[in-house]
Amino acid sequence: MGLKLLFICTGNTCRSPMAEGLAREMFGDSVQVSSAGMEACVGECANTYAIEVLKERNVHLSRHRSRRISVELMADADWIIPMTQAQEEALSRLFPQYVEKIRFLGAWADRKRDVHDPWNGSLEVYRQTANEIEKLLSEFKGQLI
After folding, report:
1. pLDDT for the residue numbered 1
2. Which are the catalytic amino acids?
3. pLDDT at 2
4. Once rounded to an integer, what is the mean pLDDT over residues 73-99?
5. Residue 99 in 3-state DSSP?
6. With left for phi above 0 and alpha for psi between -120 and 50, is residue 74 left, alpha or beta?
7. What sign does the dihedral 10-60-73-107 (CA atoms) show?
8. Closest to 63 measured CA to CA, from 24, 10, 29, 30
9. Most exposed: 29, 66, 84, 92, by fewest CB within 10 Å?
10. What predicted TM-score, i.e. pTM, was given to this entire model?
């Protein structure tokens, strides 16, 4: 496999698993994707709405289990892609040795923006978040090619 992408959010149950699943679908076998959370409780399933929204797109998250960010995960990734600028800044402070490969997902777009946390939102909020992630991933992919 080529490029290794690591998506980061807070708990690794909503945004980063959705980004991981959507990126896996978008990039296929040419890119290795994974995810983690800055404050994740290890071993949790993806959020029920995240699972449902991606299942509507034939992307399956049922096997996902949350994990916490680590030096090993950071070292292994070619790009570390948090969901917000604040997470990018926090990761850069915590792991200054990897600052060159940390860039939040919205920074790859023409109009820089955070992917807001859908936690405790409705199914429709999760759909909107998935749509936004998919759009930003497409812009990210365009920057890589």
Report:
1. 55
2. 9, 15, 117
3. 85
4. 98
5. helix
6. alpha
7. negative
8. 24
9. 29
10. 0.97
